Amino acid sequence: EPEVTQTPSHQVTQMGQEVILRCVPISNHLYFYWYRQILGQKVEFLVSFYNNEISEKSEIFDDQFSVERPDGSNFTLKIRSTKLEDSAMYFCASTPLSGRVTDTQYFGPGTRLTVL
Amino acid sequence: AQKITQTQPGMFVQEKEAVTLDCTYDTSDQSYGLFWYKQPSSGEMIFLIYQGSYDEQNATEGRYSLNFQKARKSANLVISASQLGDSAMYFCAMREGGYSSASKIIFGSGTRLSIRP
């Protein structure tokens, strides 16, 4: 069964460094998302992306964050200058928008980002 | 305003018993979708079940069923015949907009379910 994949599974970085988190959404899906989950807290929406543009972003998604679909398969989240509070699990998700009632967002396994 | 409320931070259930995880939601939209996700200790988010606001019947997927009470704005997850592998964090979530909406999903704070052998 197709699934969303994410790399790396765990990233450790120094404060102030740039990180790029990578996702490969399910191939026929059209909308892509990033969410994050700080340890022990709820999952929070960051950004949605469709047709090579940001559709919606949250207050968390400030100028330090950017997203890109550099080719036909990858979807990336870049954090330009990481802060300690960026330490979290980052989930990529995608949805097909096929028009069926079962359209849902399928999540990848997550990338655990640790900022030291 | 909190849109998804899960009032049970943790629950313990004996193996093979049924368990109900509570979820209430708040929205002014007529069209919305409700989801339950399971997050085991490994961290991934596993989709379990979906209920659309216009669905007349409660959704079922194997041992999972969703007790949807629209007037009360509740969407409780029922797990029948619980298994040790059901021990995990469970999140209730909502997406506003119609069936094909690409809107973001809003999550509750989760319920940690522990199954006792």
Task: Characterize the structure shown.
The complex is a heterodimer of chains A (116) and B (117). Chain A has strands at residues 5-7, 10-13, 19-24, 31-37, 43-50, 53-57, 65-68, 75-79, 88-95, 106-107, 111-115. By secondary structure, chain A is mainly β. In chain A, a hairpin with a 5-residue loop joins strand 4 (31-37) and strand 5. Chain B is mainly β and 117 residues long. Chain B has no helices and twelve strands. In chain B, a hairpin with an 8-residue loop joins strand 10 and strand 11. Chain B is globular and about 40 Å long. The mean pLDDT of chain B is 91. The chains are: A mainly beta (116), B mainly beta (117). The interface between A and B is medium-sized, with 33 and 26 residues.
Q: Topology of this structure?
A:
The complex is a heterodimer of chains A (116) and B (117).
Chain A: E1 5-7, E2 10-13, E3 19-24, E4 31-37, E5 43-50, E6 53-57, E7 65-68, E8 75-79, E9 88-95, E10 106-107, E11 111-115
Parallel strand pairs in A: 2-11
Antiparallel strand pairs in A: 1-3, 3-8, 4-5, 4-9, 5-6, 7-8, 9-10, 9-11
Chain B: E1 4-5, E2 10-14, E3 19-21, E4 24-25, E5 32-39, E6 46-52, E7 60-61, E8 64-69, E9 74-79, E10 88-96, E11 105-107, E12 111-116
Parallel strand pairs in B: 2-12
Antiparallel strand pairs in B: 1-4, 3-9, 5-6, 5-10, 7-8, 8-9, 10-11, 10-12
